[in-house]
Amino acid sequence: MSSNPSFIENGAQHNKGFDPNPETVSETKESELDQKLRLRYERINKRPKWDNQLEFLMSCIATSVGLGNVWRFPFVAYQNGGGAFLIPYIIVLIVVGKPMYFLELVLGQFSNSNSIKVWSLSPALKGTGYAQAVGGAYIMSYYVSIIALCLYYFAMSFSSTLPWALCDPSWDNCVPSGQSVNASQIQGNATSSAELYFTKVVLRQSNGIDDGIGLPLWDLSLCLLASWVIIFIIVARGIKSTGKASYFLALFPYVIMIILLVRAVTLPGAVNGILFFITPDWNKILEIKVWYAAVTQVFFSLSVCSGALLMFSSYNNFDQNVYRDAMIVTTLDTFTSLLSGFTIFGVLGNLAYELNYDDVSQVIGSGGTSLAFISYPDAIAKSPIVPQLFAVLFFLMMAVLGVGSGVALLSMINTVLLDAFPSVPTILMSASVCVVAFLVGLVYVTPGGQYILELVDFYGGTFMRLFSAIAETIGVFWIYGLENLTVDIQFMLGRTCSFYWRICWSIITPVLMIVVFFYAMITTQRLKFGGTYDYPEAAYIAGNCLQYFGIAMVPIFIIAALWKYRSKNITETVRTAFRKKPTYGPVDIQKRKEWKEFRASAKLNRQMQRKGWFQHIFIVLFRGYQR
After folding, report:
1. Cα distance between residue 461 and residue 409, in whole Å
2. DSSP symbols for 458-486
3. CA-based, 20 to 30 A from 254: which of 57, 229, 557, 613?
4. Where on this chain does Na(+) bind (predicted)?
5. Cβ neighbours of 555 (radius 10 Å)
6. Phi/psi at 322 (nearest 5 deg)?
């Protein structure tokens, strides 16, 4: 108020009875703040809540345990030397995945805010939330096209003979997936009918996109439409229906996955594939690109820094035990990835055996989604007992996994847009987003669609999310403050943060991500589809535009905040732009009062114990002031 020129001018007019006493100004500001807090409380109090804690847990499992575990994890491990990838992946999960997952659940529940509004804790970094939303939109654009492929295979699974089990007469060097073939009968290298069916019949994949991507394929377009209709039906009714659906979305896939694992490990040659998966190549472990792949896989698999976890936890009760939930989901996610990896590589070992290859790494040269849509169908076709049943169940499972994550991504986009346009009904916003996303998704169901999918995934789905994660950790731990966050957690959950959380959050997690990010930025070579195809120059330019559009959100909003809070004192301008807003904190009025008292007590305790900077840093990193 005091910076408003008209207010100052009126204040100079004593005949209007204005009292320039600083106490009066302070009381006015407090009154305005109280009004803002009441309005915020009324607005958020109208939001629905989960019916019980289990619904939230199931929704997190359905979000994090998705196609990233079944489709992406085996493919990334396959690209990075199989077993060599497991050690970096598990290390990254422990020092990056778990801390980031717990952090996002804490931030959402503590502030009852989405990924944009939560940045009232440091307004200048609000662009981080928008960068995450843009990255989530990129992923959502192609993610649902993979669900469409699942629905296509699901429909084809009802055929009297699985169409990918047999070779078409026009396919050269084809080995039928539905039959066991003696390796001595194969002359040279051959290709399974499952792989040829996927590339020639389902995708009708072109040899490149130099001459364009082609027109959308009508059958895959219908499957894409059906996928979006399913997601819309779930999201349009809000978290009340989403919570109920989460039980099925989270639990059903495990039943089928275990059945397929048992089938895969009993195939001839499967042991070679599993050994390839679990045997580390120590030279690979030292390659930074393997660590970069581990970081990006953890982010993709757990859905961290996509805005979805913040959005879900914002519907929690204030005291829900999100620490327990974070530990359950991150552990289960790893278990699912390993389960899927054993199944995939068991099948790859069998494929190498059937196709007379000497090494498992020679199996399936093309990348992308083909690994999951070739190796799994191949294993199903070899089933001696009703393969159609296994196919129906498997692709239903894949579709369910995809829908669980798709619902979370769409809900995140909806939340951001509804906050910007609160007068628009939720169902109308959901319908609008689904229509736009469907039209964009038609790009991925063309003959050149897989080329575009890998391009968007490489530039928009991984690199950019890592950047926003770095900005998030710097904003929360280095600007808002590690000790402030741990005090908030202690007030909300009644538990202190151990050395593990403190050292990961403040040093290991951000430093590891920064090192991997800049090394990858400097050394990463141009993307090649399947490791061989060079994209047209225009495709690389478009990919970089996607990437840097999201990254640019962070500096743009920093500049905007500095301009908004500008003053003659530069230091004060920077402090105001990055300092938390007065409205940040618990929404409930009584909880907020208790929190402020708790923070005041913690601050006093800190001042009494603090003797110098080095001692302060030591205490914050290793044990905290609140014991």
Report:
1. 13
2. IIIIIHHHHHHHHHHHIIIIIIIIHHHHH
3. 229
4. 65, 69, 301, 401, 405
5. 12
6. -75, -15
Backbone angles phi, psi at 534, to 5 degrees: -90, 130
Q: What are the binding residues for Na(+)? A: 65, 69, 301, 401, 405
Encode pLDDT of 320-338 as tens digits: 999 999 999 999 988 888 8
Residue 146 in domain: yes
Cα distance between residue 373 and residue 74, in whole Å: 12
Give residue for tokens 């991925």. 444
Q: Which domain holds residue 225?
A: 47-587
Return the amino acid letter for 42. Answer: E
Confidence of residue 626 (pLDDT cuts 50, 70, 90): low
**Closest Cα partner for 164 from 197, 200, 191, 205?**
197
Give the tokens for residue 480. 């808002």
Cα–Cα distance for residue pair 464/549, rounded to 1 Å: 9
Model confidence at 530, pLDDT cuts 50, 70, 90, reads confident
Report pLDDT for 492: 94
Please name the amino acid found at residue 189. N
- In this prediction, residue 300 has a pLDDT band, given cuts at 50, 70 and 90, of confident
Please report the DSSP string for 169-235 in residue order: TT-TTEE-TTS---GGG--S--EEHHHHIIIIIIS---S-STT---PPPHHHHHHHHHHHHHHHHHH
Tokens of 625: 């002031």
Note the pTM of the prediction, 2 decimals: 0.85
Polymer length in residues for the chain: 627
C-alpha closest to that of 417 among 441, 443, 403, 437:
437
Q: Phi-psi category of 214—alpha, beta or left, where left has phi over 0 and alpha has psi -120 to 50?
A: left
Does the pLDDT at position 149 exceed 60? yes
Q: Who contacts 144 (Cβ-Cβ below 8 Å, separation ≥6)?
A: 224, 227, 228, 231, 402, 406, 437, 441
Q: Considering the domain boundaries, does residue 204 fall inside one?
A: yes
Query: How many CB atoms are located within 10 Å of the residue 313 CB?
Result: 26
Supply 162's token pair: 């699985």
> Both ends of the chain: CA-CA distance in Å?
40
Question: What single-letter DSSP state applies at residue 533?
Answer: E
| Residue 214, CA distances (Å) to 406, 448, 449 in order | 26, 7, 9
Determine, yes or no, domain membership for 493: yes
Cβ–Cβ < 8 Å for 97, 64: no
Residue holding tokens 């999310």?
465
Distance CA 22, CA 286 (A): 62
Three-state SS at 528: strand
The answer to whether the beta carbons of residues 443 and 229 sit under 8 Å apart is no
At CA 93, angle to CA 90 and CA 95, rounded to 5?
110
- DSSP for 572-584? HHHHHHHSPPTT-
* Angstrom distance (rounded) from CA 522 to CA 528: 17
What are the phi and psi torsion angles at 379 (to 5°)? -65, -40
What's the CATH code of the domain at 94? Answer: 1.20.1740.10
| Assigned domain for 517 exists | yes
Is the distance from CB of 131 to CB of 468 less than 8 angstroms? yes
| Domains contained in the chain, number | 1
Tell me the mean pLDDT in the region 41-69. Answer: 78
Q: Return mean pLDDT, the chain.
A: 83
